[in-house]
Design brief:
With about 270 residues, this protein is an alpha/beta fold. The chain is built from 9 helices and 7 strands; from the N terminus they run H-E-H-E-H-E-H-E-H-H-E-H-H-E-H-E. This is alpha-N-acetylgalactosaminide alpha-2,6-sialyltransferase.
Length: about 270
């Protein structure tokens, strides 16, 4: 008897390589893939990443957004009353504990009274602080937060009664990679701002989708003519987009435009404002 920890335990998309097929095609189940078709139909996984920009107000993009296989949303993702513009589906909701709580406080009057809680929704933590690790641990274990800023908080209050598999958290290496490869802002070299800067929640989710989906469309993200639109699509009166030192939204805008021009993503853009 000898343990071999190099043997894969589960099958996943990466398991179905040509060498694996050649190795297993002659063995019947449960020991192989004999009898299975070699050529499976090709199908691209299409993802929509929905920001909260005012460009979506009156856009009538809801059906287009919901037609994607997976839909990512972030922060103050108000849906009720804006279904025609932003759709209804939420496959993944991305956030930090701080941005989630701030959104619930700041946009409650705009209709953001709870984060998306459909049965199919998964939650992606962006670990910007130790409190994110503490909160996801409590959510996974189904218990109250035991320490830190959120001590005594109940995760079910935000997420509902979700199984542990509903919670994901981005890897620090991935965050470092996207920051230094795609969004290397001058803010990182400024002694006054380098400890504050990180890509926005929307940027994290859009780049996450780009690394996990075959086709990616971005809606509600900052565009060259951002000043023509309100800060958010759910603003009752037009409000200007405010730039803070913890993000470099102009750099992000340049990246989205470049990726769109190179046909890496499809960035929703339009003229005018409302």
């Amino acid at each position: 008897m000898k343990f071999n920890f190099s043997v894969p335990v589960l099958q996943w998309a990466g398991s179905f390589s040509k060498p694996a097929w050649e190795q297993l095609k002659s063995y019947a189940p449960p020991y192989g893939w004999q009898g299975l078709p070699h050529d499976l139909p090709d199908r691209c996984v299409r993802c929509a990443v929905v920001g909260n920009g005012g460009i979506l107000r009156g856009s009538k993009q809801g059906k287009n957004i919901d037609s994607h296989d997976f839909v990512f949303r972030v922060n103050g993702a108000v849906i009720r009353g804006f279904e025609d513009d932003v759709g209804m589906k939420t496959s993944f909701y991305g956030f930090t504990t701080n941005t989630m709580k701030n959104a619930l406080n700041m946009y409650r009057a705009d209709g953001f009274t709870k984060i998306p809680q459909s049965p199919d929704t998964k939650y992606i933590f962006i670990p910007s602080h130790l409190r994110d690790y503490v909160m996801i641990a409590a959510a996974v274990w189904g218990q109250t937060v035991l320490s830190g800023n959120d001590k005594g908080d109940n995760p079910w209050k935000y997420f509902g009664n979700k199984p542990s598999k509903s919670f994901k958290i981005l890897h620090p290496d991935f965050i470092s990679y996207i920051t230094h490869s795609f969004l290397q802002s001058p803010l990182l070299t400024n002694i006054k701002t380098r400890h504050l800067y990180m890509p926005s929640t929307g940027a994290h989710m859009l780049l996450t989708a780009l690394h996990t989906c075959d086709q990616v469309s971005a809606y509600g993200f900052i565009t060259r003519n951002y000043a023509a639109f309100s800060d958010h699509y759910y603003d009752s009166i037009k409000k200007p987009l405010v730039f803070y030192v913890n993000h470099d939204l102009k750099l992000e805008s340049q990246l989205w435009e470049m990726l769109h021009l190179r046909r890496v993503i499809k960035l929703y853009q339009r003229e005018g404002g409302s």
